Amino acid sequence: MSYKIAVSGASKTDYCSPNATILAEEVGKEIALHGCVLITGATTGMPYFSARGAKQAGGISIGFSPASSEIAHVKAYKLPTDFFDVIVYTGFDYSGRNLLMTRAADAVIIICGRTGTLNEFTIAFEDKKPIGVLIGSGGTADRIRDLAKGPSRVRKKIVYDSNPKVLIEEIIELIKKEKKNLS
Q1: Of 127, 117, 109, 113, which Cα lies nearest the Cα of 170?
Q2: Which of 60, 95, 96, 140 matches a 20 to 30 Å C-alpha distance to 88?
Q3: Range of the domain at 92
Q4: 118: CB partners within 8 A, 6+ apart
Q5: pLDDT number for residue 150
């Protein structure tokens, strides 16, 4: 079975580094090239560019929408449908979608980000999921190392790298360790 890796990141790129969209696309490509399935929030920005990269590399992309239907996804939320093989219409708005998306994944990658990305990070962190942070991408991603230094009741499974290929390889190793511990 393929590992499922979620990409969480800013839907608007204003707070991101100038090359963040290129890096997000590379992350999506690496996820696909490593035989994994990409999961996103079926939105614009970093998740969208990751989905585009995954599709360009022949991968599978699943989006979890905050909307309850395709019509609401496109008309009310103004979100894209291209580059997704499957879109799950959760009907739970953004915070509910974030919970379902992160729980469906084996690991979460953080690229740039704002408050919603921080929400997805904290869900993954509390759920003890492996987390990869693309450092140098701006926004929330560049602040997580400081946030994660604080007191916590969970074991920290976070890797940091500025190279998309290395980051995906490191996160896959963490997933493998998790799966091995289940046996």
Answers
A1: 109
A2: 140
A3: 4-182
A4: 140
A5: 77
DSSP 178: H
CATH number for position 46: 3.40.50.450
Question: Which residues of the chain register pLDDT less than 50?
Answer: none
pLDDT of residue 97: 98
pLDDT of the residue at 85: 97
For residue 43, give Cα distances in angstroms to 113, 118, 126, 157. 13, 16, 23, 26
Within its chain, how far is the Cα of 149 from the centroid? 21
CA-to-CA separations, 45 to 3, 38, 147, 152, 157, in angstroms, rounded: 23, 15, 23, 30, 25
**Residues constituting the chain:** 183
Rg over alpha carbons for the chain, rounded to the nearest Å, is: 15
